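--- STAGE predict ---
source: upstream dedup step, 1 unique chain passed
mode: sequence only
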Amino acid sequence: MANDRKTNDENLVEILIETILSNRTKEGMVNFTLKKDDEEIVTQWDIQKAKQIRDMLSEAIEAAISDAMIYKFMRERVGLDDERASMVIHDLREVRQGQRRTMGDH
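--- STAGE serialize ---
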Protein backbone atom coordinates (compact mmCIF):
# COMPACT_ATOMS: atom_id res chain seq x y z
CA MET A 1 0.00 0.00 0.00
CA ALA A 2 1.34 3.44 -0.93
CA ASN A 3 0.05 6.91 -0.10
CA ASP A 4 1.22 10.24 -1.48
CA ARG A 5 0.01 13.73 -0.63
CA LYS A 6 0.78 17.03 -2.32
CA THR A 7 1.96 19.63 0.16
CA ASN A 8 0.10 22.59 -1.39
CA ASP A 9 -3.12 22.69 0.68
CA GLU A 10 -5.31 24.10 -2.11
CA ASN A 11 -4.28 21.24 -4.40
CA LEU A 12 -4.33 18.49 -1.79
CA VAL A 13 -4.54 15.16 -3.57
CA GLU A 14 -4.37 11.76 -1.96
CA ILE A 15 -3.41 8.68 -3.92
CA LEU A 16 -4.06 5.29 -2.38
CA ILE A 17 -2.82 2.09 -4.00
CA GLU A 18 -3.76 -1.26 -2.48
CA THR A 19 -3.61 -4.88 -3.47
CA ILE A 20 -6.88 -6.77 -3.47
CA LEU A 21 -8.10 -10.25 -4.33
CA SER A 22 -10.92 -10.41 -6.86
CA ASN A 23 -14.03 -11.99 -5.34
CA ARG A 24 -15.01 -13.28 -8.76
CA THR A 25 -11.72 -14.64 -10.16
CA LYS A 26 -9.64 -14.97 -6.97
CA GLU A 27 -6.80 -13.27 -8.89
CA GLY A 28 -4.65 -10.52 -7.41
CA MET A 29 -5.59 -7.01 -8.50
CA VAL A 30 -4.61 -3.42 -7.78
CA ASN A 31 -7.10 -0.97 -6.33
CA PHE A 32 -6.27 2.67 -7.20
CA THR A 33 -8.00 5.56 -5.43
CA LEU A 34 -7.55 9.25 -6.20
CA LYS A 35 -9.09 11.69 -3.69
CA LYS A 36 -9.38 15.46 -3.93
CA ASP A 37 -11.64 17.50 -1.70
CA ASP A 38 -14.93 15.57 -1.54
CA GLU A 39 -14.36 13.73 -4.84
CA GLU A 40 -13.06 10.20 -5.05
CA ILE A 41 -12.20 8.13 -8.11
CA VAL A 42 -11.69 4.41 -7.59
CA THR A 43 -10.57 1.95 -10.23
CA GLN A 44 -9.37 -1.64 -10.16
CA TRP A 45 -6.75 -3.09 -12.47
CA ASP A 46 -5.80 -6.66 -13.21
CA ILE A 47 -2.08 -7.39 -13.00
CA GLN A 48 -1.51 -6.94 -16.75
CA LYS A 49 -3.15 -3.48 -16.73
CA ALA A 50 -1.30 -2.48 -13.54
CA LYS A 51 2.02 -3.41 -15.17
CA GLN A 52 1.08 -1.43 -18.29
CA ILE A 53 0.33 1.63 -16.15
CA ARG A 54 3.58 1.10 -14.21
CA ASP A 55 5.51 1.08 -17.49
CA MET A 56 3.72 4.21 -18.71
CA LEU A 57 4.56 5.99 -15.46
CA SER A 58 8.19 4.86 -15.65
CA GLU A 59 8.46 6.16 -19.22
CA ALA A 60 6.94 9.48 -18.20
CA ILE A 61 9.40 9.81 -15.31
CA GLU A 62 12.36 9.15 -17.60
CA ALA A 63 11.01 11.62 -20.18
CA ALA A 64 10.60 14.30 -17.47
CA ILE A 65 14.19 13.76 -16.32
CA SER A 66 15.37 14.00 -19.93
CA ASP A 67 13.32 17.17 -20.52
CA ALA A 68 14.95 18.84 -17.50
CA MET A 69 18.45 17.84 -18.59
CA ILE A 70 17.93 19.02 -22.18
CA TYR A 71 16.41 22.30 -20.99
CA LYS A 72 19.36 22.93 -18.68
CA PHE A 73 21.81 22.07 -21.50
CA MET A 74 20.04 24.41 -23.93
CA ARG A 75 20.15 27.24 -21.39
CA GLU A 76 23.67 26.78 -20.00
CA ARG A 77 25.69 25.32 -22.88
CA VAL A 78 23.87 26.46 -26.02
CA GLY A 79 22.87 29.83 -24.54
CA LEU A 80 19.17 29.82 -25.43
CA ASP A 81 16.82 32.04 -23.46
CA ASP A 82 13.99 30.51 -21.42
CA GLU A 83 11.40 30.83 -24.19
CA ARG A 84 13.54 29.20 -26.87
CA ALA A 85 14.77 26.42 -24.58
CA SER A 86 11.15 25.71 -23.63
CA MET A 87 10.22 25.59 -27.32
CA VAL A 88 12.95 22.99 -27.90
CA ILE A 89 11.48 20.84 -25.12
CA HIS A 90 8.00 21.27 -26.60
CA ASP A 91 9.22 20.24 -30.07
CA LEU A 92 11.13 17.23 -28.74
CA ARG A 93 8.10 16.15 -26.71
CA GLU A 94 5.94 16.21 -29.84
CA VAL A 95 8.47 14.03 -31.67
CA ARG A 96 8.74 11.65 -28.70
CA GLN A 97 4.97 11.31 -28.45
CA GLY A 98 4.59 10.80 -32.18
CA GLN A 99 2.69 14.01 -32.83
CA ARG A 100 5.22 15.43 -35.25
CA ARG A 101 6.84 13.87 -38.26
CA THR A 102 10.59 13.39 -37.99
CA MET A 103 13.17 13.74 -40.74
CA GLY A 104 13.04 10.01 -41.57
CA ASP A 105 9.22 9.87 -41.83
CA HIS A 106 7.64 9.61 -45.28
